[in-house]
Amino acid sequence: MQNGSSAQGMDAFTLLGETVRDALSKRGFTTPTEPQRRAIPPLAEGRNALVIAPTGTGKTETAMLPVLNSIVESPPEDREGLSALYITPLRALNRDMRERLDWWGEELDVEIDVRHGDTTQYQRQKQANDPPDVLVTTPETLQAMLTGKKLRTALSDVRHVVVDEVHELASAKRGAQLTIGLERLRELSGPFQRIGLSATVGSPEEVGKFLTGDREFEIVEVDVTSKVDFTVVHPEVTAEDETLSGELATDAEIASHVRVVRDVVREHESTLVFVNTRQTAEALGSRVKKLGAPIEVHHGSLSKDVRIDVEDRFKAGELDALVCTSSMELGIDVGRVDHVVQYGSPREVSRLLQRVGRAGHRRDQTSRGTVVTSDPDDTLEALAIARRAEAGDVEPAHIHHGSLDTVANQIVGVVMDTGEASARKAYELVTAAYPFRDLSESQFRQVVRQLHSNRLLWLDEEKDLLEKSGGTWQYFYANLSMIPDEETYDVHDMSSRRQIGTLDERFVVNFAEPGASFVQRGEMWRINDIDDEEARVNVAPIEDPTGEVPSWTGSEIPVPEPVAGEVGEIREIAARQFEAGADRSAVARDVLTRYPTDEHTVSEALKPVERQVEAGHPIPTADRLVLEGQARRVVLNSCHGHRVNETLGRLLAALVGQRTGSSVGIEVDPYRVSFEVPPKVSVHEFVEVLEATDPDHVEGLLELALKHSDSLKFTLAQVAAKFGALKRYRGNKRFGADRLVAALEDTPVYDEAVREVFHVDLAVPETTALLRRTHGGDVELTTARERTPIGVSGSSSGRDFLVPENADASVIDAIRDRIRNDRVILMCLHCTEWTRKTKVRRVPDEPECPDCGATRIACLNPWDEETVKAVRATEKDDEQERLTRRAYRSASLVQSHGKQAVIALAARGVGPQNAARIIAKLREDEADFYRDILAQERQYARTQSFWD
Fold first, then answer.
1. Which residues cross the membrane (predicted)?
2. pLDDT recorded at residue 888
3. What is the pLDDT, as a whole number, of residue 807?
4. Which residue of 111, 292, 839, 902 could cross-link 132, Cys pair, CB 3.0 to 4.6 Å?
5. Is there a domain that residue 564 lies in?
6. Buried-exposed string 193-212: b where 16+ CB fall within 10 A, e elsewhere
7. Whether residues 637 and 764 fall in one domain
8. Shared-domain flag, residues 833 and 918
9. Which residues make beta-bridge pairs with 197?
10. Cβ atoms 934, 804 nearer than 8 A
11. Same structural domain for residues 656 and 702?
């Protein structure tokens, strides 16, 4: 590996032939961009290279101009088959690349075509019979092409392979699959040039080895961070937000977020608003639309037609903004973008650079982005990420090394290529791919025997030969992709007869039924009917503002350990200043010298730290673990990110549970692990377990703990499908998960499921190192005598602030303030004459009638005059009887529980029966009371269509 630089860089275009230079002049390319200046010389010499450069700096032309030049200057007899493959991770990128390359193809007389899953059979036949010079395709389509007789002939001429957005593939199993696919291609065509393109890579050497199979390559890296500018903002609630909250049917704090996004969109011509989940995309999109902004939603669960439509409208200037998920990260061409909003912490440095990097480059401007945050954890996390992004501290690629289901998939692929294969040859081919270089021969043999027992191929032990079986063909074409199969339902608009998107099976099963309403594409829909056989949901558009946001599945973006550690560092520095007597404004101004934000944003984020210092509690950092507990809750404050905290959480839950004979529940965020424990379990059990656990035993203990976990069972089902041990995965209702674990425990299927859970969810080496440092005294382990402000503040990282399932502290405050300012009618049921309309906050703790002194006081909705009339009526009809009974149930609650009952009854959609349930629950603090109220309000919003 070498870092690319060349004295010829300034004259890079002179290294290309006359035909290509003439085309460059016609296209207006007079001066190479920096990536072109530095990368074209080694690429023109045919060397392998990884090119890392910001979006919009001509990476496609950087790679393709030397490739097109090579094709143009080749003798005619060398252009009979495919000369080059351009591989992208998304079909939508295929469309963009085709449009972008078509001009060059026509000008240079080079035939360029696209092939993916939607390509027609006619077009496929045409490509097989008369291959184009350049084929733009996906990793999965390459798998299928390698098995076709005519296409194998065409592929035997490949001399160049370009892999776009290579960082996206490097961290995924489909990327690991591609690396073996490229070795299968090399077996067919001989050595070929490999070119990787990416906007951000944290470990260029690793990704280069991933791309080339650890063959010689160059890295050409243009500084991504030299032209980026970030601002982190926590919105300040204004008088306008109080007004908007009514229009948006939400509280003022969320209204302030929507307003800030709207204002940024208004201030710029074209804005991408990135969010971390599809739920947030729908919730934010629908609310910004209500404020009149020309904006649409774009994410992977919308139909292809809808996505293309909004892309084209944005490109044409008809839309000012798109609210999007990672669907827009990978360089889909939507024209010029002059600003990027990131709603919520981006969680990773690479994600922030990738997203903000989409803005500004068309005019060679600085890429500018605004990060809008929701709570103290979110803000400090975003600040740490923004600083690290400006410093170029990008996370390394998380390559799937040795994934056995990928090996299984590719062994079948090797057999499909030629009908039979030597087991030894197949092993050598698989291990030539970088992620599988350490795969042992015994592991390979176990996988082969598993495939043989599943009848996906035949193993002739004597001849050491792998041959096709009756199940080979069907398995291979059903498993071209390593993306797990999960059932989805198509959503169809009955009025337009168009498909508008998809819903996950989990959402349909748990929520969807005729009459229910939900948000998709930023608009409201009501379900008419569900066809389970066709996996289809028929809907009609409505104006109802109470719909539920679809609950799409998907992996949470984990916050890396260094980012969480820096959040702890910010807290520690601020705490020292508070201890020295500095006020919050002074501390905030000091933070401003190091981080891109404003005084209000930092001041809000530092409130929990200030309260922590005032209470005399220790500050959690990367070098200080703080345990605290109260009632049934123990919290380990640990600034070590999602994966380390998940590992610690599972380990402690298993060991404490084993010690006490009790079940221990866990909830994890990047800064704390929260345990739900029986009353007899205290903080001290956790301290003892942390101090007694041998770091060398962490992996073995976790594997034992995993055996009964839902995550292992879920992963095992998906891995089993990729091994052909199950029919294609369609949800856990098709098998008994415990039986599946028992059946597969001593197989490579089980080994791979464990490896994947360890790889994706856990961080065993890092956690082992943390325990060693704790035992050695380098990390302090301390306890707080009570719950601390930082420990209880929680984090919305990993949750949707707009769609809270478990409300964080800021949302709890908003609910509490809203209910306190809501009005209710109080009515004495003893004398029935006294009524009073008042705000909840003005109700005394134990209400009584000022006229007769009775304490039987009903709490009614402020518009509920009908119940007042019903109670006073001497002769009642059935409806009045029902209303009277309801009033007496309300009064009974108020008489027993006072102001608490009034608060519960004042919530939206909470009647006496549900209020009684909420009040009856045992809780450790007031916040949980409001969480339960919020849960009931959400349930009412889901089902309101039935009651109206």
1. none
2. 93
3. 39
4. 111
5. no
6. bbbbbbbbbbbbebbbbbbb
7. yes
8. yes
9. 51
10. yes
11. yes
Q: How many residues does the chain have?
A: 948
- In the chain, how many domains are there? 6
Ramachandran quadrant class, 929 (left: phi over 0; alpha: psi -120 to 50; beta: rest): alpha
Rounded mean pLDDT, 868-890:
90
Per-residue pLDDT band at 800 (split at 50, 70, 90): very low
Per-residue model confidence (pLDDT) at position 792: 86
Q: How far apart are CA 697 and CA 120, in angstroms?
A: 55
Lay out the sheet containing 49-52: strands in order across.
2-3, 218-221, 49-52, 193-198, 160-163, 84-87, 134-137, 112-115
Return the structure tokens found at 30.
């007079």
For the stretch 902-922, what's the b/e string if a residue is b when 16 or more beta carbons lie within 10 angstroms of its beta carbon?
A: bbbbbbbbbbbebbbebbeee
| Calpha distance 190→327 (Å, rounded) | 35
Cα 282 from Cα 519, distance rounded (Å): 6
* Location of structure tokens 């003893």: 830
User: Which tokens is 724 given?
Assistant: 């052909």
**Residue of 896, 920, 279 whose CA lies nearest to 547:** 279
pTM of the full structure: 0.78
Are 862 and 926 in the same domain?
yes
Cβ burial, residue 573 (10 Å; 0-12/13-18/19+): middle
* pLDDT of res. 1: 55
Q: What angle do CA 665, 670, 674 make, to 5 degrees?
A: 25
Same domain, 204 and 286: no
Q: Evaluate whether 740 touches 716 at the Cβ level (below 8 Å).
A: yes
Kind of pairing between the strands at 160-163 and 84-87: parallel
List b or e across 85-104, with b for residues whose CB sees 16 or more CB atoms inside 10 angstroms.
bbbbbbbbbbbbbbebbeeb
Q: CB within 8 A of 173, min separation 6: which ones?
A: 400, 403, 405, 406, 482, 483
168 forms bridges with which residues in the sheet? none
The predicted structure's pLDDT at residue 501:
78
Which residue's structure tokens are 């690290």? 388
Check: CB of residue 809 under 8 Å from CB of residue 849. Answer: no
What residues make up the domain containing 375?
Answer: 227-391
**Three state DSSP letters for 819-857:** HHHCEEEEEECCCCCCEEEEEHHHCCCCCCCCCCCCCCE
Q: List, for residues 268-304, the tens digit of each pLDDT value.
A: 999 999 998 887 888 899 899 989 889 999 987 777 7
Among 137, 134, 196, residue whose Cα is nearest residue 166:
196
Answer positive or negative: Cα dihedral of 912, 914, 919, 921.
Answer: positive
CA 570 to chain centre: 26
Which of 175, 193, 222 is where one domain is finished?
222
Sheet order of strands, 228-233 included: 228-233, 367-372, 339-343, 271-274, 321-324, 295-298
pLDDT of residue 341: 97
Q: Strand 633-637 to strand 624-630: parallel, antiparallel, or no bridges (unpaired)?
A: antiparallel
E strands in 865-915: none
**How far is 141 from 480, CA to CA, in rounded Å?**
8
Compute CA 85 distance to the chain's CA centroid, rounded to the nearest angstrom.
30
Question: Looking at the structure, do residues 881 and 855 belong to the same domain, yes or no?
Answer: yes
For residue 521, what are the CA distances in angstroms to 274, 365, 803?
15, 32, 16
Question: Taking Cα atoms as reference points, which of 678, 677, 706, 701 lies closest to residue 690?
Answer: 701
Going from the C-alpha of 258 to that of each of 87, 248, 339, 509, the distances in angstroms are 38, 9, 17, 31
pLDDT at residue 360 tops 80: no
Give me 293's structure tokens: 């902004």
Strands of the sheet with 823-828, listed across from one edge: 835-839, 823-828, 857-860
The answer to whether 639 touches 671, Cβ cutoff 8 Å, is yes
Closest CA to 655 of 696, 699, 705, 695: 705
- Report yes or no: 354 and 369 within 8 Å, Cβ to Cβ: no
